[in-house]
Amino acid sequence: SGQKPTFHSLPINAFARICDFSPIKSLLQLRLVSKSLNEHVCVLIKTRKTVVKEFSVKYASDSPYPLKTVAELYLCFLHQRHAIIWHSCLTHAFNKIQLTPLKFSTYLDKNSNYSVSRSFVRLANFLYSGSYNNTQVGGIENSSRVLEA
Amino acid sequence: RIYPLMRVTLTTSDGASVTVSRQLTKHSGFIEKAITDMAVDDNAVPLSAVAVDVDDATLKLVIEWLTEHRDDALPYPEKTDEERRADDIPAWDQAFVQKWDTKEDQQQTLYAVITAADKLDIKGLLDMTCKTLANKINGKTVEEMREILQLECDFTEEELAEIRKENAWCEN
């Protein structure tokens, strides 16, 4: 092609490989570099299995929700650009006494202006009930449809 | 496995051609597939050249790496997410990269070799070069990452604040 190669000209497969060799903290830092990098990294983080474990380790205990679920929810919302909702809830959960799904819902209703909060509450309740499997964490919209089915 | 076809001619994107041992090309999924697709009779000579979308200068580096790694085990051992690490690049590979990965070059050669390794499906070389780039980025500040990757920040302050909040769980 004659054009000089740049970071942006790397094939997506190679970019994924580079991210494979980066710890989660560096990946999250990469999100702040540029908009296009943020887009790519968010997609890759979601498919990275160890993030679930890393997230769980950070929040060692005390969560009223299964840690694996907490981590997967974070990834789900991160991919959907709504991670900030989950972060608010998580912060609240760790600052206060353990939350039940009902308290959790109430908190969300009072503290979130996001239209997706209802879907999130349903998803949280669904996950908390234990009748959950990995194939259904594909995003808020998909999860909502599963719940409403 | 025995490779009756002992040498393969590769033609580059800039019109050069180079003949290499099959012992080297067996590490390239792309070249091996191309040979298979040509339905080459093991005894047929000569073989039509395999066209590779890589320039001559980059291909020379690829061949140098393949020559050093000609006896590496195949298939390439894939590692799980948890097994992957970037600090295990062999000494020869580190010296090999240092020869041509210069600041003045702005990593263009590294990007070219990464792209070539991906196109030619040489997993060992792709891993090594991606580890090299990951090692440049890992542990750096956002500003340093932008400098290394030569990318401009196109976020607003509000957008940056939102992402920082989403990332907060991973902070110390």
UniProtKB/TrEMBL annotation, chain A:
Pfam families: F-box. InterPro entries: F-box-like_dom_sf (IPR036047), F-box_dom (IPR001810). It comes from the Eukaryota. Residues 8-43 form the F-box domain. This is F-box domain-containing protein. It comes from Pristionchus entomophagus. The lineage of its organism: Eukaryota, Metazoa, Ecdysozoa, Nematoda, Chromadorea.
Automatic annotation (TrEMBL), chain B:
Residues 8-71 form the SKP1 component POZ domain. Residues 123-170 form the SKP1 component dimerisation domain. The keyword Protease does not apply. SMART domains: Skp1 (SM00512). Gene3D superfamilies: Potassium Channel Kv1.1, Chain A. Keywords: Ubl conjugation pathway. The keyword Cell division does not apply. One of its GO terms (biological process) is ubiquitin-dependent protein catabolic process. Pfam families: Skp1 (PF01466), Skp1_POZ (PF03931). SUPFAM superfamilies: POZ domain, Skp1 dimerisation domain-like. It comes from the Eukaryota. Belongs to the SKP1 family. This is Skp1-related protein.
